[in-house]
Amino acid sequence: MTLPFESGVRVTSPFGLRADPFTGASSVHSGIDLVPLLDADRTVRAAVSGSVTQSRMVTDPMNRTSEWGNYVSLFGDDGRMYYYCHLASRAVAQGDRVEAGQPVGVEGQTGRATGVHLHFEVRENGVPVDPSSLIGVANVPGAEKAPPRWYDEAAAWAVEEGILRGTGDGLQLDEPCTRGMMVVFLHRLWKKLRPS
Ligand SMILES: [Zn+2]
Known about the structure:
alpha+beta
């Protein structure tokens, strides 16, 4: 699953029971509130590939969806529903096909929100589920998840291919490693270092 912010995420309000930010009363938070690790990184990205079911701004206060303000909902290829709420602007339209990582909008404070953040909600069969485990962040205020580093991804791939063995910092070259495998590995690293 792709993080909703490219720079990584910080939890500002966890999923589940919490004190309502407006009234202080105990209430259930049906999503998780996230901000980007880098302030300037406000582009919200699709966590999974899927199709856009709604992209709109609800202003009618009688409609509970108005709490979400400007929002995009996505039916993921994994069968889950994804909601991106309080957006400043939307980058997709109803019916659009989106790929994981594609921008769906810009983080904002529309609807019922006390500050600029993303309300990220995931539902299975209509029931909100804890999104924190899906994106690999702890469900506590202040928890952070950094994006995967390209060299970690390259190393993981090399371990999978049998070019390197070990884990984490203990990686070492496996012997024998064919010239072809090493060339592919170096080519991948080269493309990352010199993308054009
Ligand atoms: Zn929220």
